[in-house]
Amino acid sequence: MKKFISALLCVSSFSFASMIGLEAMGQEQIAGGSAAMAGRGFAGNAKTGDAEGVSVVNPARQAFDTKVVLNLNFLLDVSTADRSNSHFTKTNLSMPSMNLSFPMGDFGAFGVSLWQHYAASMREDFENQEENQKAKIEYQSSIYELVPTYAIRLPFYRAISLGASAHFVMGSYTRELTLGPDNSEIDEADAWATNNTDVSDYVNGDWEIKNHPAYYTFAAQYRGRMASYFFSFTTPYTLQNELEYNFRYSETDTLVPAKHTREIRVPAMLATGVNYRFNKRHNVMADIAWRAWNKDIENAAGSWNLSKVTKTQNDFNISLGYQRDGSDIFYESYWNRITYRAGVWFKNWYVQDVSEIGGSIGAGFPLGRKGTMLDLSIQGGVRLTDDDRNWSESYIGIRLGLLGVGSWGKTRGQ
Predict the structure, then answer these.
(1) Looking at residues 394-398, what average pLDDT do you find?
(2) Is 334 or 18 the better-scoring residue by pLDDT?
(3) CA dihedral sign of residues 295, 301, 303, 307
(4) pLDDT tens across 113-125, in order?
(5) Rounded to an integer, what is the distance from CA 262 to the centroid of its chain?
(6) Is the pLDDT of residue 62 over 80?
(7) Could you tell me which of 354, 345, 350 has the C-alpha nearest to residue 383?
(8) Which of 62-71, 128-137, 283-292, 332-341 has the highest average model confidence (pLDDT)?
(9) Which of 41, 56, 211, 402 is the most exposed place for a label (fewest CB within 10 A)?
(10) Average pLDDT in the 97-119 region?
(11) Could you tell me the pTM of the whole model?
C-alpha cells in the first residue's frame, strides 16, 4: 500500500500550496504577507507611515498611523514540484490576510487582522482501468489567526511606541486516502471473486491552542528622523489537533472511529527590523525572525505505514527590501505618485533540510485623492531540500491588495 501511494504522487497534476509538510502543519506564510510587504521582499515591519497599518510581527508600529487603514490581500500562486522524474504544475488562489486599524489620538491605536498562518492543500485522483487501480489523495488544512492589536506612543518620549497582540487560533485539518480494488496480481480466471470495495482512511479535526485562548506578541518601536527600529517577542504555545480517524469500506460501511489528539509545541519567536529613509522618499529595510525548534512534529499519519513524525530544524527568515514612496501631492504626475518596491528573502523552514529563496517586485497605484491604493506584487522563488522524502519546488505568484485610507470620526475639512 505504501509503495502504491508513493507512486500515485507521481502521475498527474493537483492543487497545492506546497507539497512540503502536508502531514504536519503545511506551508507557513511569511508574517506580513500583504501585497505591499510582499513587493519589498516581506521586509519593512519597522516602516511607519499613514497607511502601514497592522503588522502581526510588530504591533507597536501602528501607533504612528494617523489615518484609518483597511487592507485586503489576494494571492494567485503557480507552483511546480519535482522529485526524481516527476513534475507537477498547478495554480492556487487564496486570501492570506486582511486587516483593519484605526488611531485613537493620545489613546493609542487599535487594529485587528485575520491571517492564514499555515496552509496545506492538495487533491489527486488516479485511475488505471487496465490494472484495476483507483485511488484518491486529498489534504485540506488551514490554521487561521484572529489577531487584535493595540499600540501606544510613550507620552514622555513620543519617538518610542509599545504594542501587544493576541493570536486566537482556529482552523481544521482533513485528509482522505482512498484505495480502490487491485486484483492485478490475481489470475484472470479468479478475478471475479475478488472484493470490489474501495477502502478509505478519512481523518479530520480542528486546530486550537492547548489550555489557553491565545498566544501573544509584545513589541517596542523607535522612530527616528532617518531610521526606525523594532524588536518583538512572541510567546511559545502548544497547538492541539483533535483528530478522528474513520476507516471506511465503500461509502456506507464505517468501522468504529478512533480518536487521537496530537500536540505540536511551537517555540517562541524573536524578531527585529530596521528601516532607513534617505532623500525623503527612499527606504532601505531589513527584517529578521527566528525560532528554535527542539521537538519533532507528530504527523496525522495513522495508516498505511505513513511517517509518524516530521523532523524539524531552527527556522528563520531574513528579508531585505527597498521602497520608493510615491508623492502625496495629487497634482504631480501619476508616475511620480506611484510607490515602487523590490526585495529578496531567505527562509529556513521548520521542516528539516528545507530552505527557501525568493525575490519580488511591486508597485502601489494611487486611486483618487484620499490615499486609496491598489498594491500589486510579483514574487518568485525556489524551495530546496536535501531529503528524498520532500519535494523541490519553484513558484511564481501575483499578490493583489486593496488599501483603503480614511479619517473616521472627523468631519469634512478637519
Answers:
(1) 89
(2) 334
(3) negative
(4) 998 898 888 777 6
(5) 21
(6) yes
(7) 354
(8) 283-292
(9) 211
(10) 89
(11) 0.85
Q: Evaluate if residue 13 carries a pLDDT over 60.
A: no
383 touches 354 (CB < 8 A): yes
The amino acid that residue 265 corresponds to is R
Which residue type, as a one-letter code, is found at position 114?
A: L
Q: Which residue has the cell 499578490?
A: 399
| Distance from C-alpha of 144 to C-alpha of 208, rounded to nearest angstrom | 10
Q: What are the CA-CA distances from residue 120 to residues 138, 231, 261 (Å)?
A: 10, 30, 19
Rounded to the nearest 5 degrees, what angle is found at the Cα of 259, between the Cα atoms of 253 and 264?
135
Query: Are 32 and 52 contacting, i.e. CB atoms less than 8 angstroms apart?
Result: no
The one-letter code for the residue type at 208 is E
Beta strands 253-254; 258-266: pairing state:
unpaired
pLDDT at residue 346 tops 80: yes
Q: What does the pLDDT look like over 246-274, one tens digit per residue?
A: 876 655 555 567 888 899 999 999 999 99
